[in-house]
Each structure stands twice: as C-alpha cells, then as structure tokens.
From TrEMBL:
Catalytic activity: Release of any N-terminal amino acid, including proline, that is linked to proline, even from a dipeptide or tripeptide
Sample GO molecular function, one term: metalloaminopeptidase activity
An individual GO BP term: proteolysis
Family: Belongs to the peptidase M24B family.
InterPro entries referenced in this protein's UniProt entry, alphabetically: Aminopep_P_N (IPR007865), Creatin/AminoP/Spt16_N (IPR029149), Creatinase/aminopeptidase-like (IPR036005), Pept_M24 (IPR000994), Peptidase_M24B_aminopep-P_CS (IPR001131), X-Pro_dipept-like (IPR052433)
Pfam families per the UniProt record, alphabetical: AMP_N, Peptidase_M24
Presence of keyword Heme: no
Gene Ontology CC entries for this record: cytosol
Annotated region described as Disordered, given as residue ranges: 1-34
Protein name in the entry: Xaa-Pro aminopeptidase
Length: 481
C-alpha cells in the first residue's frame, strides 16, 4: 500500500481561455520552495474495516472475475462549471472514499478471492509539472488539496495506484464486470476485455442486494443523519416569521444551512411545499408563498459526512394550529402511518406496511364520505379508486441513497420479505388537488404526508426518527416552542 516507483506522464493542465500563459522562469519558480506537506497523522478510518468486509462479500459472489466500480467524475452544470462532486453509492459502500475520478478494481488472485486496488488521481508533485498550480479541475491551488496515494492507503486500508496506470491493469483479458453509467472513460478502457451488459447488470443487482441489510456502522450513520435532520426542521420552525415573509425559499435555505454545517449536503432536493403545492408529490421549485391558514409539507433529509441520508416528512399548520378539518385529515394519515409501521417485522412482505396503511386510509375516507364507491370496492385490486387521493406507495429503502438499493431485483426488494437490518420509510399521504371536483371545495388544495425512517429489528421495527413530533399536539407544541 505504497506509492508506485514510477511517476505517470503529466497531462496537459485543464485551463481556460482567460488563464495566463506562464513564462519558463515562472514555471521554474513555481516548482521550487515548497514545504513537505505529506500528512503523517493518517490512520485507518472507522469505515475502512467495514468496507473491507463488504468487499469480501462481493468477492464471494463473483469468483474468478474482475470487478470494476468507478466513483464517477464531475457533471457539468453549465458551460465550464460543474456540480459539486458526489461519488457513486456502490463505490462509497465498498471503499468509504469520496475522491472523484477514482476506480476500485477487484482483481481475481488465482485462489478463491480478489485483490482490491484503488486507482485515483493523487495530489501532484510540486517539484515538477504544472498540474498543481494551473489545472482548474485537479490543481491543488485551484480546486484544493487531494490526498496522496500513501495517505489514502492508510485511511482506507487499500492498495492504491495512480489512475493513469488503470489502462494497463485492465489490458489482460479476464472476465470482467463493470458498474456502468458513472464514468464513460472506463468503458473505452475495457474494449479489449470480455464484458457484456447482462453480466454488468448482475453486478448492479448484487451490489444493491448486498446493501439491503445495514451493518452497525451504517446504522450509526443513519441515526446521525436523522438527528441532524431533526435540528434542521427545528431551525425552520424557529424562523416562521421569515418563512411567512420570504416563503418556501426560506424553508429550503434554512434547512440547507444546517445540512452544510453538520453534514455534507441535503440527501435530495428539499420539498418545501406550502398550500396547494403540497399536492404535488415532488414539488422542488420551492418558490411559492407560505400563508397562514394553510398547511406546509416539508419533505427533507440531511446527508451526513459519510453520505448517508435521512428522509423525513412533516406536515404542519402555518398558523401554528390545525383547523378542525385539517386536524381530522391529518389524524387519518397519522393513523395510517402507525398501522403501516406496526405491520413491519422480519418475514413479512415489503408491501405489508403499504397494505396496512391503505386499509386505514380507505376506511377513513369512507367514513368521511369522500369515496365514490364503498370501501370494499375501493380496496378491490381491480378498482383501487382511492389511489386518486394517495398516488404513491408507502415505502422505499433508505441508506446511502434516498431511494436506496434501487437496482435490487424485485424478488429481493419490492416483492420480497423484510429482514432484520433493513431500513425503509413509511410515508402515507392524502392529496386533494386544487381542481378536483370529486372532493368538497374546502378540501381542495390540501396535501398531507407523514414520513419516518424505520429499522427492521429482530422483534419488529424501530422508528429512527421517533424523536421528531408526529401527533397533532406534539406538532403544535413544537411550533410554539
């Protein structure tokens, strides 16, 4: 796990039209007079030992085959500006590393396992070349310090090599599977090896399915993300005067401030939906007013510094108190959510929570005389007319991605059974569109969703976000505090 003896040839620095062309004297001056800044304090990170176990599990699934998992590269926002980099989830899960343009290769070692090597672009040598001071993408003086090969090897317990050596490493015709879609340059390097799309899909399936059960490190990260998210919601409620003045934008910005201060970012674009915007499931424009007498639906989650995200929704009365009609509808959704959570335990189907929640929703809508048919007919699989007002499923997996493990096969996920260690959301909702003539006028434009993050335990389920108020009195007291 040391730096290679040979130094890869330097590429032309990535510069822009308005950058200065350096003189020979400046080049020589820039390559001298720098202190040694190699970090000597690096030790194996907490995630390093867990990532090694995950690589072992993946190795056992594909004996004798090379496995290539890219971190991905920067994505263009506009012209020559990029979005902030976020590595591919499978890469993070297998390494713990967050460096751009990196590639993890599991090379079969001729026995029963694999040798893992992390290829990436380390910080450039300041004693030669121009990358460190002229390259806008990778230069240390432009984009910040990148770790050295040795530092990364120590931190993550992996052999490390310069990414420029990757092409040679992939030349041998070993049966290869690659996690596609994150770095187009990797496909060109594999042109001479045995790959096919079907085999690559099997790698994606396996990675998502391995990630379904969260290990203790992951559960710690999810609890951390939930706790920060709780504080972010409280920040918003503490600034309701500003929310009323500036609208949904203030909600989004206030929550993001907490996400950046204590975490890495938001785990997905925040939904700050007030009034009729709450009936749009993924309202992310967040540019509307917030008006007393209406409800605001806040679907937000912090991604912590190890890139695990919470996903929590609360629907709150802007004025601080629910109207009687709002209260009745909210209580129905809360009762449905409680039924959905209570249905979860190891061995039940993934859909068990959804079915339990929808039973409560439909019976409640029927009691309120809001269904065009009987509850029995509405629940009939050939009918399901109630879905006009509920629209979506109740649960999805949660982890490094907000919709985690999405490549898992249906029989392992949506049509499978729950296992201890799964983490999923339970989030029923009711949505009465502003122009829906099938509901009374006073209900039109009301949207309510309640969402919590649930861990499947040996004996049932634990609500990781239970500290955040959900009941009517708790929400009103939270807003008043």
């Amino acid at each position: 796990m040391t730096e290679p003896s040979e130094t890869p040839a330097e590429e032309t620095p990535k510069t822009a039209s308005h950058d200065n062309e350096p003189s020979p004297k400046l080049r020589a001056f820039m390559n001298s007079g720098w202190a040694d800044s190699e970090r000597q304090d690096v030790t194996l990170s907490d995630v390093g030992s867990w990532a090694a176990k995950r690589r072992d599990a993946l190795s056992q699934a594909f004996p004798g085959e090379r496995l290539v998992i890219p971190a991905g590269t920067y994505k263009v926002r506009s012209n020559d500006t990029d979005f902030v980099f976020r590595p591919h989830t499978d890469y993070v899960w297998l390494t713990g590393n967050q460096t751009s343009d990196a590639v993890l290769v599991l090379e079969p070692n001729g026995t029963s396992g694999h040798d893992s090597v992390l290829y990436f672009r380390p910080r450039a040598d300041r004693s030669e070349g121009e990358e460190f001071w002229r390259d806008r993408m990778y230069g240390e003086l432009w984009a910040g310090r990148r770790p050295s090969l040795t530092e990364t090897a120590k931190e993550f317990g992996l052999e490390t090599r310069h990414v420029d050596r990757l092409a040679d490493a992939l030349k041998s015709d070993v049966p290869t599977r690659v996690r596609r879609g994150e770095d187009a340059s990797i496909a060109s390097l594999l042109s001479g090896t045995t790959t096919d799309a079907g085999r690559d899909k099997e790698l994606a399936f396996a990675l998502s399915e391995l990630r379904l059960v969260k290990d203790p490190f992951e559960l710690e990260q999810l609890r951390d993300a939930v706790a920060i998210t709780h504080r972010g919601f409280s920040d918003v409620l503490a600034e309701m005067d500003k929310v009323r003045e500036y609208g949904e934008r203030w909600i989004e910005g206030t929550f993001w401030r907490r996400a950046r201060a204590e975490g890495n970012d938001v785990g997905y674009t925040s939904i700050a939906a007030a009034g009729p915007h709450a009936t749009t499931l993924h309202w992310i424009e967040n540019d509307g007013p917030v008006v007393d007498g209406t409800l605001m639906l806040l679907d937000m989650g912090v991604e912590n510094r190890n890139l695990y995200t919470a996903d929590i929704t609360r629907t709150l009365p802007v004025s601080g108190e629910f109207t009687p009609r709002q209260r009745d509808l909210y209580q129905l959704v809360l009762d449905a959510q409680n039924a959905g959570i209570d249905a979860l335990r190891p061995g039940v189907t993934f859909r068990a929570g959804h079915e339990a929640a929808m039973e409560v929703i439909v019976r409640g809508l029927d009691a309120m005389e809001l269904l065009p048919v009987s509850a029995e007919e509405a629940l009939d699989p050939e009918s399901k007319l109630y879905q006009r007002y509920t629209l979506h499923g109740v649960s999805h997996m949660l982890g490094l991605d907000v919709h985690d493990c999405s490549a898992a096969r249906a029989e392992k996920y949506t049509k499978g059974d729950l296992q201890t260690g799964y983490v999923l959301t339970v989030e029923p909702g009711l949505y009465f569109q502003a122009d829906d003539l099938t509901v009374p006028e006073d209900l039109r434009g009301i949207g309510i969703r309640i969402e919590d993050d649930i861990l499947i335990t040996d004996n049932g389920a634990e609500n990781l976000s239970d500290a955040m108020p959900r009941d009517v009195e708790g929400l009103q007291n939270w807003m008043a505090s």
